[in-house]
Amino acid sequence: MAHAQNANTQKPKVVTSSPSLNFYGVPGLIDTPSAEPLPDGQLALGVSHFGGQTRTTLTFQLAPRISASFRYIGIRDWNSDGFETYRDRSFDVRYLLFREGRYRPAVSVGLQDFAGTGIYASEYLVATKNFTRPFRLPGEVKVTAGLGWGRLGSSGSIGTLIGDTRPTFTPGDTGGDLATDQWFRGPVSPFGGIEWQYNDRLGFKLEYSSDAYEPETSRGVFDRDSRVNLGVEYQWTNALRVGAYYLYGSEIGINAQLQFNPKRPATPFTVAGPRPIIVRPTRSASPEAYDTAWAGSTSSSVFIRDVVEPELTEDGIRLESLTVTANRAEARVSSIQFDNLAIVVGRTGRALARQLPPSVEIFDIVLVNEGLPISKVTVNRRDLETLEFRPDAANTLLAKSEISDADPRPTAGAVDGTLAYPRFSYSVGPFIRPSYFDPDRPIRLDGGISAGAQYRFAPGWTLSGEIRHRLAGDVEDGRLSNSVLPRVRTDAVLYAQAADTTMENLFISKQWKPGKNTYARVTAGYLEQFFGGVSAEVLWKPATSRLGIGIEANYAKQRDFDQRFGFQDYDVATGHVSAYYDFGGGYYGQMDVGRYLAGDVGATFTLERQFANGWRLGGFFTLTDVSSEEFGEGSFDKGITITIPTSWFTGKPSRQTVGTTIRPIQRDGGARLGVPGRLYGQIRDGHATDLNADWGRVWE
Predict the structure, then answer these.
(1) 3-state secondary structure (DSSP) of residue 176
(2) Comparing C-alpha atoms, which of 3, 614, 311, 314 is closest to residue 322?
(3) How far apart are CA 331 and CA 343, in angstroms?
(4) 170-224, pLDDT tens digit by residue?
(5) CA angle 174-180-186, nearest 5°?
(6) Partners of 445 in the beta sheet?
(7) Rounded Cα distance, 532 and 212, in Å
(8) pLDDT value, residue 116
């Protein structure tokens, strides 16, 4: 009994397969990188401080071999442009050349601060090898060695490989441009070190750094007396690791590392199990059950709807319409709570199999979103009855089913669901509006109460609006715009100063399908915080095609600062031609070419990764005919988008999401009109590639 009590009080074992992070928030030792990749899809947030420098880095393992990082730094006593703390933003990218083998180390190549002002600009080639219990030592030892250029080539150089000279950081540079003229140029220096993971929690690091910190030491930010760094780290939980360090013979540093993976939800997903499928009697055993005389009754469809609809509603599915003939049924359904449409297909098929007369053999399940028929999944009832409990049931059912384009309108004889239209919904809750990277304060926030309402009075028709009341915040204290372009985005401070109670949007929208594989939308009203107007869009996207092509045209007029009903004098015609491509594996690409709000012309390129549970992470950049000097700090528009399903936190099925867009700097060039309900985002989850990827959940 005593032994059992002691076991129960022991601290749970920490299990983590992720490499530790360095002071730049990427896999590494202390101030230098290692070659190991993070687990696929991993998100890592690193915050470090030493010698008057604070670095905050977000790293995403975009693919098994590719990771990207965004970093925001503050350096005290830099004495640049009169700021007590100089702040800068930068991006990294790294590629795993070789995975670690039995005898071969992992090898990676990386670009650090490759598109910023270049304060931390460097390139590296690095190798890392893991050893378990070397020389009978407990735990694991990682040995890292590499060659660095730029920052990592500024101390202990062994010569040059490509070019003798390298451009250097120029104070006042607007940054943002790719510094291709300096990559792998100039002196090259070796770096390396050892990491000893003593047990599942405690680790030690020893490092030889090749960074001379010339800009910092010349400005008196800190003194560098050694090339050797030492550190001890503690794995507090599976996600959190903390460390303390002695750096460059003069400084004490700290580092906190938070890692998690979108594939692993914060709360395990739980949902009530589906009802069992009722297997029909065979025709030979019960021929009277297959009598189709009922199909001639005008009231039969209404009767069947009234027994099918409650079952679907209880499963979180809305019946839009139902058509039933002697041997075929078409159910048009939309999801109330499931963001995974394979679940919707499976539960709709179960409900039909439980309630429809035995003669109905074919189910056409049409997935609908906001009045748009997205796709049609044709399932044989007999397959549902015979495959449910077989091994590999999902793949077999997929092979026997068909995904195709949905007809714009229900088949003849359809009856509407009683809960389909009209529908009224509302929401009341808190809101937070962030403003990032003000030179005086990294993050400013406004927060308060939001009230929104939507009235859907017919298929595809939506009347929607939102009112916000700010209770607290400091966005109004930000810096006023110095833009030389029309101030379509940079007057955010003036909008924040004008009123506490504002109308975020108020619009009416109609969307429909002109043809089997085309979609259309018209939206008019107060579309976003800064602009109102009229927007029209047409999208061609077959359900089984990876490619989509869209055209959007808008007339926009700038709203008054108080965000009520008035407008300012500035107006603009804007629009884009867009190409969308589904690369598979959850990767999506998008290119938008056209005219932006400030009148500039160019293109936006976007790459996004979506996980099966609804997480979306992406990056974008925009290049237009606005020069770097006209654009201002940052040189061109770029940023990161993050969308998180609330079900990831709660473990309960929901279609709600939270998200944000992080831009290094918000300027007026490359600014696109914010239009609610663009078409591609509404339909892609219901097309073949996404349904195929999610099909494993069709039996849930």
Answers:
(1) coil
(2) 311
(3) 15
(4) 544 555 567 777 889 899 999 999 999 999 999 999 999 999 999 899 888 999 9
(5) 105
(6) 434
(7) 53
(8) 65
pTM of the full predicted structure? 0.90
**Whole-number Å distance between alpha carbons of 188 and 184:** 8
DSSP 605-670: EEEEEE-TTS-EEEEEEEEESS-HHHH-TTSSEEEEEEEEETHHHH-S----EEEEEE-S---STT
Separation of alpha carbons 382 and 561, rounded Å: 62
Which position has the higher pLDDT, 262 or 15? 262
CA atoms within 13 A on the CB side of 383: 20
Q: Report whether 448 contacts 431 (CB < 8 A).
A: yes
- Of the ranges 74-78, 231-235, 570-574, which one carries the lowest mean pLDDT score? 74-78
Q: Token digits for 5?
A: 């009590």
**For position 244, what pLDDT does the model report?**
97
Could you give the 3-state DSSP secondary structure of residue 64? coil
Task: Identify whether the C-beta of residue 317 lies closer than 8 Å to the C-beta of residue 333.
Answer: yes
* Dist CA 71 CA 91 (whole Å): 6
In the chain, the amino acid numbered 273 is: G
What would the pLDDT profile of 71-102 be if each residue is shown by its tens digit?
A: 999 998 876 555 678 888 889 999 999 999 99
Q: Is the pLDDT of residue 398 over 60?
A: yes
Integer Cα distance of 51 and 32 in angstroms: 16
Structure tokens at 422: 């009209």
Q: What is the DSSP string of 228-295?
A: EEEEEEEE-SSSEEEEEEEETTTEEEEEEEEEE-TTS-SS----PPPPPPPPPPPTTT-GGGG--GGG
**Cα–Cα dist 346/695, whole Å:** 9
How far is CA 188 from each of CA 10, 147, 185, 239, 275, rounded to the nearest angstrom? Answer: 49, 6, 8, 35, 66
Give the strand pairing for 587-595 and 601-610: antiparallel
Length of the chain equals 700
List the Cα angle 8/13/16 in 5-degree steps: 160
Sign of CA dihedral 358, 360, 364, 367: negative
Give CA 674 to chain center in angstroms: 18
Is residue 613 within 8 A of residue 693, CB to CB? The reply is no
Structure tokens at 149: 């250029």
2 pLDDT higher than 90: no
What is the SS3 assignment for 477? Answer: helix
Helices (H), 356-499: 381-387, 393-400, 492-498
Tokens read off for 110: 């990386």
Find, among 318, 312, 354, the residue nearest to 336 by Cα.
Answer: 318
Q: Which letter does DSSP use for residue 381 in this model? A: H
Q: Which tokens in the block code for residue 446? A: 């406004």
Q: What is residue 1's predicted lDDT score, i.e. its pLDDT?
A: 38
Check the CA dihedral 639-549-372-510 and report its sign. Answer: positive
- Specify which of 145-159, 639-653, 654-668 reaches the highest per-range mean pLDDT: 145-159
Q: What is the pLDDT of residue 82?
A: 57
CA distance 60 to 618: 10
Q: Give 650's contacts (C-beta < 8 A, 6+ positions apart).
A: 267
β-pair type (53-60, 43-50): antiparallel
